[in-house]
Design brief:
Layout: H1 2-5, E1 8-13, H2 15-33, E2 39-44, H3 48-55, E3 63-70, E4 83-86, E5 96-104, H4 108-119, E6 124-132, E7 145-149, E8 155-156, E9 172-175, H5 177-180
Protein backbone atom coordinates (compact mmCIF):
# COMPACT_ATOMS: atom_id res chain seq x y z
CA UNK A 1 0.00 0.00 0.00
CA UNK A 2 2.91 2.37 -0.69
CA UNK A 3 0.85 5.12 -2.32
CA UNK A 4 -1.47 5.39 0.69
CA UNK A 5 0.99 4.54 3.48
CA UNK A 6 3.13 7.57 2.72
CA UNK A 7 0.27 9.90 3.76
CA UNK A 8 -0.12 8.19 7.16
CA UNK A 9 1.57 9.60 10.26
CA UNK A 10 1.10 6.46 12.35
CA UNK A 11 -1.01 3.35 12.67
CA UNK A 12 -3.82 3.53 15.25
CA UNK A 13 -5.34 0.05 14.78
CA UNK A 14 -3.25 -2.44 12.81
CA UNK A 15 -4.52 -5.21 10.51
CA UNK A 16 -3.51 -7.78 13.14
CA UNK A 17 -5.40 -5.95 15.87
CA UNK A 18 -8.48 -5.65 13.65
CA UNK A 19 -8.32 -9.44 13.19
CA UNK A 20 -8.16 -10.03 16.94
CA UNK A 21 -11.03 -7.58 17.56
CA UNK A 22 -13.22 -9.36 15.03
CA UNK A 23 -12.52 -12.72 16.69
CA UNK A 24 -13.61 -11.33 20.07
CA UNK A 25 -16.73 -9.69 18.60
CA UNK A 26 -17.59 -13.00 16.90
CA UNK A 27 -17.84 -14.63 20.33
CA UNK A 28 -19.94 -11.81 21.79
CA UNK A 29 -22.29 -11.67 18.81
CA UNK A 30 -22.75 -15.45 18.55
CA UNK A 31 -23.70 -15.47 22.22
CA UNK A 32 -26.21 -12.63 21.69
CA UNK A 33 -27.76 -13.62 18.34
CA UNK A 34 -27.68 -17.42 17.89
CA UNK A 35 -31.18 -18.50 16.77
CA UNK A 36 -32.45 -14.92 16.27
CA UNK A 37 -31.64 -14.37 12.57
CA UNK A 38 -30.97 -10.63 12.90
CA UNK A 39 -30.81 -8.14 10.05
CA UNK A 40 -27.28 -6.75 10.04
CA UNK A 41 -27.66 -3.19 8.77
CA UNK A 42 -24.51 -1.55 7.45
CA UNK A 43 -24.31 2.23 7.40
CA UNK A 44 -22.66 3.14 4.09
CA UNK A 45 -20.04 3.77 3.10
CA UNK A 46 -17.74 3.49 6.11
CA UNK A 47 -19.10 0.10 7.21
CA UNK A 48 -18.12 -1.95 4.20
CA UNK A 49 -14.71 -3.36 5.13
CA UNK A 50 -15.57 -4.03 8.78
CA UNK A 51 -19.01 -5.45 7.99
CA UNK A 52 -17.65 -7.71 5.27
CA UNK A 53 -14.84 -9.09 7.46
CA UNK A 54 -17.15 -9.48 10.46
CA UNK A 55 -20.17 -11.23 8.93
CA UNK A 56 -18.01 -13.89 7.24
CA UNK A 57 -16.90 -14.96 10.72
CA UNK A 58 -20.41 -15.15 12.25
CA UNK A 59 -21.79 -18.68 12.54
CA UNK A 60 -25.51 -17.94 12.80
CA UNK A 61 -28.24 -17.09 10.30
CA UNK A 62 -28.53 -13.42 9.45
CA UNK A 63 -29.67 -11.14 6.65
CA UNK A 64 -27.88 -8.08 5.28
CA UNK A 65 -29.25 -4.63 4.57
CA UNK A 66 -27.81 -1.16 4.08
CA UNK A 67 -28.63 2.43 4.85
CA UNK A 68 -26.78 5.57 3.86
CA UNK A 69 -26.89 8.34 6.43
CA UNK A 70 -24.58 11.35 6.19
CA UNK A 71 -23.20 13.40 9.01
CA UNK A 72 -19.70 14.57 8.08
CA UNK A 73 -20.36 15.81 4.53
CA UNK A 74 -16.79 15.01 3.50
CA UNK A 75 -14.94 17.25 5.96
CA UNK A 76 -13.27 16.90 9.35
CA UNK A 77 -16.06 18.10 11.63
CA UNK A 78 -19.42 16.47 12.37
CA UNK A 79 -22.36 18.49 11.10
CA UNK A 80 -25.23 19.15 13.44
CA UNK A 81 -27.80 17.23 11.38
CA UNK A 82 -28.02 13.79 9.83
CA UNK A 83 -29.70 13.04 6.53
CA UNK A 84 -31.10 9.69 5.35
CA UNK A 85 -29.70 9.32 1.80
CA UNK A 86 -30.74 5.69 1.30
CA UNK A 87 -33.29 3.89 3.43
CA UNK A 88 -33.28 0.18 4.34
CA UNK A 89 -35.15 -1.91 1.71
CA UNK A 90 -36.83 -4.44 4.00
CA UNK A 91 -39.41 -4.52 6.78
CA UNK A 92 -37.91 -4.38 10.25
CA UNK A 93 -41.08 -4.92 12.30
CA UNK A 94 -40.48 -7.59 14.95
CA UNK A 95 -36.95 -8.22 13.66
CA UNK A 96 -33.74 -8.02 15.64
CA UNK A 97 -31.49 -5.35 14.10
CA UNK A 98 -27.73 -5.19 14.48
CA UNK A 99 -26.30 -1.98 13.05
CA UNK A 100 -22.70 -2.30 11.84
CA UNK A 101 -20.64 0.88 12.08
CA UNK A 102 -17.02 1.79 11.44
CA UNK A 103 -16.98 4.55 14.07
CA UNK A 104 -19.21 6.17 16.66
CA UNK A 105 -18.19 9.79 17.20
CA UNK A 106 -20.83 12.37 18.18
CA UNK A 107 -23.44 9.59 18.28
CA UNK A 108 -25.92 11.65 16.23
CA UNK A 109 -25.98 9.25 13.29
CA UNK A 110 -26.90 6.33 15.50
CA UNK A 111 -29.44 8.25 17.53
CA UNK A 112 -31.30 9.07 14.30
CA UNK A 113 -31.08 5.54 12.87
CA UNK A 114 -31.93 3.74 16.13
CA UNK A 115 -34.99 5.89 16.76
CA UNK A 116 -36.18 5.39 13.17
CA UNK A 117 -35.86 1.59 13.37
CA UNK A 118 -37.47 1.45 16.83
CA UNK A 119 -40.34 3.60 15.55
CA UNK A 120 -40.87 1.01 12.79
CA UNK A 121 -41.31 -1.73 15.37
CA UNK A 122 -37.97 -3.57 15.42
CA UNK A 123 -37.82 -6.19 18.18
CA UNK A 124 -34.39 -4.86 19.20
CA UNK A 125 -31.84 -2.44 17.78
CA UNK A 126 -28.20 -2.84 18.81
CA UNK A 127 -24.92 -1.56 17.43
CA UNK A 128 -21.56 -3.15 16.74
CA UNK A 129 -18.80 -0.66 15.96
CA UNK A 130 -15.15 -1.20 15.20
CA UNK A 131 -14.11 2.16 16.66
CA UNK A 132 -15.60 4.16 19.49
CA UNK A 133 -14.53 7.76 20.11
CA UNK A 134 -16.28 8.59 23.41
CA UNK A 135 -14.69 12.05 23.72
CA UNK A 136 -16.51 13.08 20.53
CA UNK A 137 -20.01 12.53 21.95
CA UNK A 138 -22.64 15.22 21.58
CA UNK A 139 -25.23 12.97 23.26
CA UNK A 140 -25.17 10.33 25.98
CA UNK A 141 -24.76 7.02 24.13
CA UNK A 142 -22.74 3.79 24.48
CA UNK A 143 -22.62 1.22 21.65
CA UNK A 144 -23.56 -2.36 22.57
CA UNK A 145 -20.52 -4.10 21.02
CA UNK A 146 -17.28 -2.13 20.76
CA UNK A 147 -14.12 -3.11 18.90
CA UNK A 148 -11.72 -0.58 20.39
CA UNK A 149 -11.92 2.87 21.97
CA UNK A 150 -9.74 5.54 20.39
CA UNK A 151 -8.84 9.10 21.46
CA UNK A 152 -10.35 12.19 19.87
CA UNK A 153 -8.22 12.16 16.71
CA UNK A 154 -9.22 12.11 13.04
CA UNK A 155 -8.52 8.68 11.63
CA UNK A 156 -8.78 7.17 8.15
CA UNK A 157 -8.62 3.70 6.64
CA UNK A 158 -10.54 0.43 6.86
CA UNK A 159 -13.66 2.22 5.61
CA UNK A 160 -13.03 5.65 7.07
CA UNK A 161 -12.34 8.45 4.61
CA UNK A 162 -10.87 11.88 4.24
CA UNK A 163 -12.73 13.64 1.41
CA UNK A 164 -13.77 10.27 0.03
CA UNK A 165 -10.29 8.69 -0.06
CA UNK A 166 -8.27 6.27 2.13
CA UNK A 167 -11.23 3.91 2.76
CA UNK A 168 -9.26 1.05 1.10
CA UNK A 169 -6.37 1.23 3.56
CA UNK A 170 -6.37 -2.16 5.38
CA UNK A 171 -5.70 -0.56 8.77
CA UNK A 172 -6.75 2.57 10.70
CA UNK A 173 -4.25 5.42 10.83
CA UNK A 174 -3.63 9.10 11.47
CA UNK A 175 -3.27 11.28 8.41
CA UNK A 176 -0.21 13.48 8.13
CA UNK A 177 -1.30 17.07 8.88
CA UNK A 178 0.09 18.27 5.53
CA UNK A 179 -2.65 16.29 3.77
CA UNK A 180 -5.50 18.30 5.28
CA UNK A 181 -3.85 21.63 6.16
C1 LIG B 1 -19.32 8.51 9.57
C2 LIG B 1 -19.22 7.13 10.18
C3 LIG B 1 -20.44 7.05 11.05
C4 LIG B 1 -20.66 8.47 11.46
C5 LIG B 1 -20.22 8.64 12.87
O1 LIG B 1 -20.15 8.43 8.47
O2 LIG B 1 -19.21 6.14 9.20
O3 LIG B 1 -21.55 6.59 10.33
O4 LIG B 1 -19.89 9.31 10.60
O5 LIG B 1 -20.37 9.97 13.27
P1 LIG B 1 -21.32 10.46 14.44
O6 LIG B 1 -21.24 9.50 15.58
O7 LIG B 1 -20.71 11.80 14.77
O8 LIG B 1 -22.71 10.61 13.91
P2 LIG B 1 -20.21 9.52 7.31
O9 LIG B 1 -21.45 10.33 7.48
O10 LIG B 1 -18.91 10.26 7.25
O11 LIG B 1 -20.40 8.68 6.02
P3 LIG B 1 -19.48 7.53 5.40
O12 LIG B 1 -19.74 6.30 6.23
O13 LIG B 1 -19.98 7.41 3.99
O14 LIG B 1 -18.04 7.97 5.48
Amino acid sequence: MKQLDKDIERTVVSEEEIGRIIERLKGELEHAYAGKCPIVVGLLKGCILFMSDLVQRLDFHLELAFMDVSSYYGGLHAAADVKIEKDIDMAVKDRHILIAEDIVDSGRTLRAVISLLEHRGAASVKVVTLLDKPEGRAIDYTPDFIGVRIPNVFVVGYGLDYEGRYRNLPYVGLLKPKIYS
